[in-house]
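ligand=magnesium ion
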Amino acid sequence: MHIGLIMDGNGSWAAKRSLPRAAGHLEGLKVCKRIVKYASQLGIEYLTLYVFSTENWKRPDQEVGYLMNLLAKKLPGEMDFYVQNNIRIRVRGDISSLPEDAQKGIQYTLDKTASCTGTTVVLCINYGGQDEISRAATRCALEKPNAKITVEDISAHLDNPDIPAPDMIARSAGEHRLSNFMLWDSAYAEFLSIEALWPDWDKKEIDLIIEELGKRTRKFGGLAHA
Ligand code: IPE
Ligand code: IPE
Ligand code: MG
């Protein structure tokens, strides 16, 4: 099973408490740990988390800087937890344009968890579905110039082509949009919007996702099987 999560509502969570937006992001990171641990206990194979979009650079420098610092310092500091829980971290997105210390922090987490065999957690960082498709198409065109680029070609050149398409994408904070998340491989994903803000998520939201997925009839363009 592969679940994609659009972790939204950190800023709103902080605003409700008259705290700076950064406090919401810090709480959001704590919740990531809780959710990831529970997902691994449930045996979910893949969990993809939307951490920072290609559009999030539009935010004030201070907020972007805070998020980059979490990636550079806080995330690598939590690696014992991920290793103990046999969780492998991978990345999706173009991290080559991140500040160097953030790139190093991310690389450290990838290396530390490379041999973990439990749940794979894919962190989408400087990720946009459109950007990923455009990078994939560029690589296809370089490999086979003047030839038709097929759907399979693009799929094979996504950032993690070995990871199956998501079964469900869920978004917190009650929003009903993808905001450039997993545009290519969400083609037949189920979608669920959950009211709770990301920092308020707990096991019950994951239970809800799994329960809801169990109720959906997935047809992939064909007919439902009895
Ligand atoms: C999601 O929370 C975290 C990131 C996009 C990094 P937001 O920061 O978007 O929170 P809201 O939408 O302002 O509440
Ligand atoms: C999507 O949330 C990006 C992440 C969760 C990282 P945003 O808060 O950036 O999306 P919009 O702007 O509300 O669509
Ligand atoms: Mg938001």
